[in-house]
Design brief:
The protein is of the alpha/beta class and 155 residues long. It has one domain: 3-Layer(aba) Sandwich (Rossmann fold). Helix content is 38%, strand content 21%. It is built from six helices and six strands, in the order βαβαβααβαββα. The protein has a six-stranded mixed β-sheet, sandwiched between helices. Strand 5 and strand 6 form a beta hairpin.
């Protein structure tokens, strides 16, 4: 059985003077949260084998900071469907990658909707939240854990 860690990008900077949503960067709190994610996953032995990331600047920065903070060596791929796509796109990405632990970094409302589709549970993914799902062969899943960003940065 494989697993997927879903990470909603960390908090973005709405006041950065960027009018294009795709290019909006992280704010200071978001950078701190992304670093906490990277450290936590490294410390607990949950470093992904592969990261699939939205092309949005805030998502890519979240991944870059997490990788640096946790000293991960996994490859990353930018995937347009994680910005523009649907729940079906995200489920397909999660279920077709044959790695023991995949990380998907994306956006709302697709993150919460995908988790609900896979697990049947109504979950909310605030910015910077982290959830791990064990995938079954039938593309259903079991929620193993969900960390809101506050728990990550307060430790």
């Amino acid at each position: 059985m494989s697993a997927v860690i879903f990470l909603r990008h960390a908090k973005s900077d709405w006041y950065a003077g960027i009018s294009n949503d795709l290019e909006r960067p992280l704010n200071k709190r978001g950078r701190r949260s992304a670093a906490a994610v990277g450290s936590l996953l490294a410390e607990t032995g949950h470093v992904p084998n592969l990261v699939l990331c939205s092309p949005a600047t805030r998502a890519r920065q979240t991944v870059e900071i997490a990788i640096a903070a946790g000293d991960w060596t996994c490859p990353t791929e930018t995937v347009d469907e994680l910005y523009y796509g649907t729940v079906d796109d995200m489920v397909t990405l999660a279920c077709k990658r044959l790695v023991p632990l995949l990380m998907i970094v994306g956006h709302e409302p697709t993150m919460s909707s995908t988790l609900e589709y896979l697990t049947g549970a109504e979950l909310r993914m605030p910015t910077g939240a982290l959830a791990r799902i064990s995938l079954n062969p039938d593309n259903s899943g079991l929620l193993e854990w969900l960390f809101p960003p506050r728990l990550l940065t307060d430790r």
